[in-house]
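Q: Can I see a sequence and its folded structure?
A: Here is a first one.
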Amino acid sequence: MLEIAEYIERGGVIVTLLIGLNIFGFTLMLWKFLLLTLIRWRELDMVERVLVFVKRHNEAFDKELLDNALRMEIQKLEFGLSSIKIIALIAPLLGLLGTVLGVLSAFDAIAKQGLGDPAVFSSGISVALITTVAGLIVAIPHYIGYNYLIARLDVIELHLEQEVLAQL
């Protein structure tokens, strides 16, 4: 059984890049999770900003103006989520790139040394499988985390809208 360091070494640049993306993405997801958890204590400030915006721009109630004010507040909270989504989307593509490069390496080895020794092309196939697995290991939790955070934002937006409407 290979150790993790051996997998990383055999996966090469692509696995190293995926590890870097994984660290960055998990840090970002943790930061966003904490921010969205702590937003409950800043919710009144957000409601006040929306109310001030709506009242400053229109004396009578205007649903479109309210939606714009809410959207501005939510967009501030969405910062960074697109990076998590991008990591979730490109990680499997990077894994696929590693797969193609590994298979290409295996065929190059076969072309140079023939099919007599399976060990000749097994290294390339191993790289292909390692990068595929690494890409999926990075993509799946980022996809789940992104969807979870978006759902939390939707709940915050709905609650914020209800609070604002209650005060109008």
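Q: Show me another, different protein.
A: A second, unrelated one:
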Amino acid sequence: MKSITIRGIETSVADRLKKKAKIEGKSVNQFIKDIIKAQLGMGNKKRYTVVHHDLDHLFGRWREDEFRQIQGKIDSERIIDEELWT
């Protein structure tokens, strides 16, 4: 693999790259490689798996303990009562 150095990146651009990479859970290097591949038509496009974060600031997110509590309630409602079905 080759290395390419890009000089003269503005601070505001670098900050946005870091922020977007963090949101996607990638390193800045991987994020930039993905952008380049996409622009060259070489990227892997995911269909139907787009994750949107545009309304997170309006609705918030569950903490891990809240999620487990809610998921536990859902799981308990899915238990089939064999006595009712025999």
